[in-house]
Amino acid sequence: MAHYLFNFVRGDAAPRPALREQAIGFLRVRMWGIDADERHRNALAAGDLILVYLGAPERKFIGRAELASAVHDWTPSEAQVYPGESPGGVLLAQVEEWDPPVPMSTVLSQINPAENARADFEAGVVRITANEYETALAVAAGRAISTG
Length: 148
What we know:
Elements: E1 3-8, H1 16-28, E2 31-33, E3 49-54, E4 60-67, E5 72-73, H2 76-81, E6 88-103, H3 104-108, E7 125-128, H4 130-140
Parallel strand pairs: 1-3
Antiparallel strand pairs: 1-7, 2-6, 3-4, 4-6, 5-6
């Protein structure tokens, strides 16, 4: 089982509330599009755990999920339901929406700086450590955790 951050950003033309609503829409249909050029595309597998992150300028986690499938082209019935433009992606299970969202700055303040965690990413799929994943869950649950 691996841990990933799904980094959701769109061009400056998209209004910020619409960005969050679009990401929530993907979570609600339990599907997430993965582009063909994503670095970790072929590594994603059922059972992997993900955090859903709105990138700059939001820099907030809006939920978590477990992957229910590896990356695949959408079936005809999946393509009818999927609200985005990607021709394929992963199916999600155990989806949690976080409202209010969890600020990345709060999560980073709980992570040992030696882990090199950061707030901005170039890729849409970013491999993270189990500790980074667990720290985000703990912050979302309102629990302080030790960084020692």
